Amino acid sequence: MSAAPEQKAAPPKWLPYLLDYGPLLLFFAVNWWFGSKADPTRGPIFGTGVFMIAILAALAVSKWKLGKISPMMWVSAILVVGFGALTLWFRDPKFIQIKPTLVYLLFAAILFGGLLRGKALLQYLLEFAFDGVDQAGWTKLSRNWAIFFLVMAGFNEIIRHEEWFSFDTWLSLKVAFIPLFFIFNMTQIPMLLRHGMKLGDNDQSGKDQPG
After folding, report:
1. What is the pLDDT of residues 92-130, one digit of tens each?
2. If pLDDT is split at 50, 70 and 90, which confidence band does 18 have?
3. Residue whose C-alpha is closest to residue 160's, from 111, 87, 89, 64
4. Radius of gyration of the chain (CA)
5. How far apart are CA 82 and CA 77, in angstroms?
């Protein structure tokens, strides 16, 4: 009798977050470590090189451990490598600063484009996470995220202008974007609950009650 094949262990829950934000945090750390007042471009140049390597490594680990690469990670990696190459070639950190604006505008355009065609595209990505949400809820969620991405693009354009903020200030505020996404996501929960989203605890408690 042949032995049953071993089941592959599930990846840790923190891994997707590390893959999404780890390269950016490395960029921040390397920029700080190699920063120089005598040469303001030194930190960003070193940071960009590490950023490019880290995000390519994140793609490989995501495919290996998670079995897939999210569309957001693909887009981010392409833009990081593309604008990172321009940053290194011209030794100008402005190119890597433009990348977030283009990412946010692209996602906003995709979501608005779906809504114009009558499709709430976030439903295809988050349907299993937000079980029970009706069509009106998905439409509102896609619209709200599209608007949020536009706001974030505008915010990045404001803080990347060196006449107002230094590169280090831009980078510090860019890292601060991370909790903003989490906070905005939490603000959508009440709306989703009004549109039928089921909570796991409620479902489980209903199953545990005697018939």
Report:
1. 888 889 988 998 999 999 999 999 999 998 888 777 778
2. confident
3. 87
4. 21
5. 8
Give the pair of three-digit tokens for residue 63: 């495919």
Assigned token pair, 106: 């692209």
Could you read off the pLDDT of 122-174 as tens digits, one per residue? 888 777 778 888 999 999 999 999 999 999 999 999 998 877 888 888 888 87
Cα–Cα dist 90/111, whole Å: 33
Total number of residues shown for the chain: 211
CB-based contact 121:107 (threshold 8 Å): no
Provide the 3-class DSSP secondary structure of residue 3: coil
* Type of residue found at 86: L
- Please report, for the chain, how many H helices and E strands are present, in that order: 9, 0
Tokens for 155, please give them: 């915010």
